[in-house]
Amino acid sequence: MLVKLQSLPEENVLQVIELLFNSQVTGSQNREEIREFITGRYFDSGRYFLVNLQEDRVLATVGAVIAEAENKEIFVTAMSCSDGHEECIEPMTRQLLNDLTSFGNCSIKLGVRDGQKVPQGFPESLGFTRSYSLLRMIFAGSLPDTDAQKSVELCHLKPENLKHFVEVTNSSFAGTPNAASLDIDDATRLLNRDDMICGLFKHQNEIKGSFELKLVESVGWIDSIGILPQYRGKGLGKAFVAKLILKLNEGGFSKVKLSVISNNEKAYGLYKKMGFEVERCLSDWYVI
Fold it and tell me: Where are the domains of the chain?
């Protein structure tokens, strides 16, 4: 039986969270973060999140992030299933795609995480074609030259700059594959999290980008680096990345990791040049 997440009782929602928690590739999301993600605006409060429920047991999930539909992009994700129930994935996804027809002419992207069991021929059987991969990289180089980042100031996220942070982040990532826009509520949640350090890049007394860092045990994750369009192509990317690596190292995080889209050639090339190496393919993405 297919049920929308918004209709499930709490005991089944907890099963969904546990299934997603145990199937994640990075292990960087805790259960509360998963709850916020699947019940929030990204899936329209669970309206576009399907659950296969049999005899009160959650067998599989799949959802559509529709928060970017106004930008003509929808992401099919949160795909997971219990062992031996991968045959549930295709009919669930087919039903989800049918639910999405009301959005009209949107590009629909579907992610299959590394090692995930799916039916043979999926998702090509639904008309998707492979487009790119999401790669996890780890910093394996020497500490960056401190001179490159001396003129960069990190302005930490505060209640008084929340709006500016949202504006800069959204402008910096507009049109970027797999990028989701932020609103004030999202920024407020980031501000209140103990495991996140977020803020704005200031260079030559001007705000030129934004960043998000996530702290997971001994690993410092560079979750995002955004540069405003008018400041790109000026060598700031290297200085910004160097600043964040040094900040994480000074904070006691011996490992620095990030993820990047394989067809984002500029970012991928920059990270490789600075000493990052591909550690794992996190997921493959398909487009219809």
Answer: 2-127, 138-282
2-127 has which CATH code? Answer: 3.40.630.30
- Rounded to whole angstroms, how far apart are CA atoms 16 and 60? 8
CB neighbours of 83 closer than 8 A, spacing ≥ 6?
Answer: none
Q: Under a CB-based contact definition with an 8 Å cutoff, are residues 286 and 121 in contact?
A: no
Instruction: Give me the CATH topology for the region 138-282.
Output: Aminopeptidase (3.40.630)
- Categorize the per-residue pLDDT at 261 as very low, low, confident or very high, splitting at 50, 70 and 90: very high
The pLDDT value recorded for residue 178 is: 72
Q: Do domains 2-127 and 138-282 have the same CATH topology?
A: yes
